[in-house]
Amino acid sequence: MRKKLKIAITAIFTLSSTLFFAQSHEIKGTIISDNGNPLEFATILVKGTQTSTTSDALGKFTITASNNTPTLIVSLFGYQTKEVVAKDPVIEVQLLFESNSLDEIVVVGSRNPNKSKLETAVPVDVVNLAKIRNTSPQTTTNDILTYLIPSFNSNRQSSADGTEHIDPASLRGLGPDQVLVLVNGKRRHTTSLVNYQNTVGNGSVGTDLSAIPASAIKRIEVLRDGAAAQYGSDAIAGVINLVLKDNAGLEANATYGSTSRNDGQTTNINLNYGSKIGNNGGFINVTAEFNDRQKTNRSKNHNLIIFDQSANNNYFAYDFADDPAQSRQFDDNLLAQNGLKRDDFNFQIGDAKIQNIQGFFNAAIPLNDQIEFYASGGVSHRTGTGYGFRRLPSETESVVASLFPFGFQPELNSVVTDLSSSFGFKFKFGEWKLDLSNTIGQNKFVYDVSNTNNFSLGDNSPTDFKAGNHSFLQNTVNADASRLYKDIFNGLNVAFGAEYRFEKYKIVPGEEASYIDGGAQSFPGFSPLNEVDKNRNSVGVYADVEADITEKFLVGVAGRYEDYSDFGNTINGKLSARYKILDNLSVRGAVSTGFRAPSLHQQYFNNIGTDVVDGQILNSGIFRNDSEVAQQLGIPKLKEETSRNYSFGIMYSPTKQLHITADYYHIRIDNRIILTGNLGNDAFGEPVPELRDLFANYGVQTGRFFTNAINTTTNGLDVVIDYDVNVGKGKMNFSLLYNYNDNKVDDQLNNIPALFAGQEDVYYGPQERSLIETNTPKHKGTFAVNYSLDKWNFLLRNTYFGQVVRDGFPFGGIQKHDGKVVTDMTVAYKLTPKIQVALGANNLFDIFPDRQIYENSYYNVFQYAPVQMGTTGAYYFGRLSFTL
């Protein structure tokens, strides 16, 4: 009887504990590395729920699940994600080293859904932005890529009208419009802004990467190879694909920083929240970001115009050179009596003031096992204030003395609005996958000019002007189908599809006072004569086949046909291959043709602006190719750029932790579209009467045109080395990135009108040539060390920006700006598993480009040219990050 009672009691307790355990199953465990060390901050998620926790400093965790045998998903940056079925209440999970995430599946470079960046036949970089952003000294996508992608360059411009507000960027030294930008694999629209202020990418139209908040981006894939045959127009230099976040949870960041000169204060606040939808992989992820960057001033002296009472209380302007003692000539009391202060006489040369407010979302919802709906998009609202050249009181043809007795420095105030939306459906039909989508985007750039005058209106001139706006809209419809045949060869992937794209470009005039009779100084408004409302459409079809002929030999073939309503059609192809010599040694290469259609902006942009031409401030016009003046001068109609790309590379991994890639590339571009020099003077800067008379009919002294004037050749080498090693209980990563890039413009120009025979140096002169050949570094390298230990993370990075040469900007001599090394450093500490603080610096040692030579300055004001690393100097920041 006692034995039966004991069995019954045992059974009751067993059943009760089982029922209780089923209702509330607490699991305890330890997360360790492959060498047995405990791993802190690993994320443990109960699969199919939003229940999660993180491991502590000893790798310990406790989590509760309602299921008797729940599946746990364990993840940690630098280690392979692992799924574990928790059959016991106490478990141990070992994570394997991930080797820099180099085996991460990529979207660009291959349409095979199973290819990693080390298995593609062309070079692809992957920047895992979501994992590095909290410790990066940079906050914008442009700046981050500049320091992490060897052949990517971008720096801020000064006194460059709209280009101050949207930074031009280049890949492999080519133009901003020769790299294609995708978001989640879908074509992103370009800006409505034409770069025409003799900056990098002069005459081009790029994509504004900063319109997408970096806090919304999961990773960035950079395909460094010509890909027009795969993705269409613009992909001559390569493709940048921004993959948006799809995670669950909350992340908040706040960053504040300032330069060593106590300007350029930057405030960045962003929130990212994601939530799972259902149990089949659905999600929604939203981001909001606010970024405020104050102006910087890098003029030679902040007070360059001297108040002089010696001549009947008149005010004279002159440069007091390098003698700071002369600033005592200011009589602050006398200035105050006249309602003035020293700042009224400043030259402002530096970064523009920019404020961004942005929101973005990314979502996917499986409707059933065969259909998934997805969508993404966002809005960016940017305001900015930049500065034109200062008008001195002595410039009596520019300054209305009654309005500005001491001269003035015009301000260009911009409002840039960027909207985008993409949605579609993914279908599964057996082994086939079908993707139908529509992507639309618009960029609008509104100009207001203040602190200036229209000289022709005299005392009645306003000092603030509505100068008009331009906008660009793009809508793209895609249908893509693909299938992986696992049993043909060692895998055959077939993809094909079609695309329809509609584009619309508009220029809207400003108020009459902004453009009449010469217009507002610095930036005359768009007039009714500049008004544009043009559109076009294009249709494209492609096929892309990639086969693993054997386990060692991969071959890819792609072809694309596109037909444009405004300039015609084109066919392009690509052949690529990769061969494994050994398991850890491969060679790869590709040959392709490419094209870039002339943008609507290049065909129809036109305006009148104030420019420095051969040392004089003149009104200069940019005229359409279909204009009357273009026909009178014999300017030819625009046609597409064509290219031939060749690449060859090696991939070598002597150990699991060490990976080396080196890729040589050769790019030949024919009929490249450029913006001519200012036509109206001869090669010695003297007016050409017949040209001046012709341009006078259009209210200017000189004129510029878009034309297919040049052929270029680019040769280069990219080297990427990554090495991971365990150091004690910590992890250390070493990375070395190097790019050599050489751009050459052919001596012989294309299609020179007879009127300019012998005037090649005016039509496309040394200044324009240097922007392509020598204005981006020929050598650029980065060596970085990242060390993480317990709650600490340390980053030390040195970036070498090689020599650049500027020829005659805006007039004057040839100057070499020597190469410089910029040092970044960040120290981050986890206060708790959810809160991290970081302190750091970009350009820790306050390195600047070489000072400009006198003859390349404007009234000796330009102390530094915006080359290489820019003119910000040291920037120090603090950041607080919170995750939940």
Number of strands: 40
The gyration radius over C-alpha positions equals 30 Å
State the end-to-end distance.
Answer: 56 Å
Given as residue ranges, the uncertain stretches (5+ residues, pLDDT < 50) are 9-22, 99-103, 301-330
Net shape: globular
Report helical residue fraction: under 10%
Mean of all residue-level pLDDT scores = 85
Family: Belongs to the TonB-dependent receptor family.
GO cellular component, one term: cell outer membrane
Protein name: Ferric enterobactin receptor
Keywords: Cell outer membrane, Membrane, Receptor, Signal, TonB box, Transmembrane, Transmembrane beta strand, Transport
How would you portray this structure in words?
The protein has 884 residues and is mainly beta. The chain has 3 domains: 2-94, Immunoglobulin-like, CATH 2.60.40.1120; 124-300 and 347-883, Maltoporin, Chain A; 301-346, no CATH class. Helices cover 9% and strands 46% of the residues. The chain has 11 helices and 40 strands. A hairpin with a 2-residue loop joins β32 (702-727) and β33 (730-745). The longest helix is centred in the N-terminal third of the chain and has 22 residues, at 2-23. Residues 9-22, 99-103 and 301-330 have low confidence and may be disordered.
List the helices and strands and how they pair.
Blueprint: H1 2-23, E1 25-32, E2 43-46, E3 52-54, E4 60-65, E5 71-75, E6 82-85, E7 90-94, E8 124-127, H2 129-132, H3 141-148, E9 152-154, E10 169-171, E11 179-183, E12 186-187, E13 217-223, H4 228-231, E14 238-244, E15 249-259, E16 266-277, E17 282-293, H5 332-337, E18 353-366, E19 371-387, E20 411-429, E21 432-450, E22 464-485, E23 492-508, H6 512-515, E24 532-548, E25 553-564, E26 568-582, E27 585-596, H7 600-604, E28 607-613, E29 616-623, H8 628-633, E30 641-652, E31 658-675, H9 689-696, E32 702-727, E33 730-745, H10 760-763, H11 766-773, E34 779-789, E35 792-801, E36 804-807, E37 814-817, E38 820-832, E39 835-842, E40 875-883
Parallel strand pairs: 1-7, 11-14, 29-32
Antiparallel strand pairs: 1-4, 2-3, 2-5, 5-6, 8-13, 9-10, 11-12, 13-14, 15-16, 15-40, 16-17, 17-18, 18-19, 19-20, 20-21, 21-22, 22-23, 23-24, 24-25, 25-26, 26-27, 27-30, 28-29, 30-31, 31-32, 32-33, 33-34, 34-35, 35-38, 36-37, 38-39, 39-40
